Amino acid sequence: DFRFNLAQASTPELVGKLGDANGWVRDTAQRLLIARNDAAIAPALAQAAVAQGQPPAARLHALWTLEGKDAISRATIVNALRDQDARVAAAAVRLAEKFFTQQGGDPELAARVASLVQTRTEPEVRLQLAFTLGEIRTPGADEALRALVIAAGKQPYLADAVVSGLAGRELAFVTALVRDEKAAAQAEDAVRYAFSAVIKSGDVPQIERGLALLTANDTQAWARSALIVGVRQALPRSPDGRALAGSLPIEPKPLIALAAQSDADGKAAQQLLTQIRWPGKAGVVATVVRPLSV
Fold it and tell me: What is the pLDDT of residues 116-128, one digit of tens each?
């Protein structure tokens, strides 16, 4: 109802408008609450954030209004993580991140968030978990990330989100996944994206250990193919998207060994070797080698 003067509304009235059917009214009420200096706002919002009898939009706006006032509590987040609405639960996952960055972190809350991998299947929640778990940076969170990839790695944008938060942990992530008997085609995208990052890193020891996975006995067949594609994705591209020749800082002996096989992976490795240069490769002029990190 546009006849209602939001600017002159009381704090309880504005909190009530966070669930209005009109998006402009909700957004305006949220903005006014953030700007208003009233000690009663935070308790009222905390109650609204977990009020299951109200529309999910009301709980969602209450959460973000609390965040806007820097007044959101751990208890409110814990309650919101259990919300039946996927949008509210996903927001709670995102808002939990502030507690992980505090000194000492919050292992108990991190474990609660990680456990959602096993209990929440909604795309919105899974995608937010992909981003948030990468920020926790603990062995338990990384294990939950791998479980998320195994469960939903083909969900649009999920693999990209997972890899974007690894920041130097890509090799450990890939190594664990390619050896995990529970992992299969669902994990292909995450493996190739993460392995591409390893190849582009320029870190010789990591690249060497990563390439060794190509011929390791405990690397699963699906993963071997994904690793080859990961190397190919690390090749530089022309403006029109064509793969250009790239270079490795070391001789890719595992890739060469794989190319000696007559199966599909062997043929893929053979083709890939024609696009890669390395120190000592016959016919390579060092001044024209383009690094894979370009």
Answer: 999 999 999 999 9
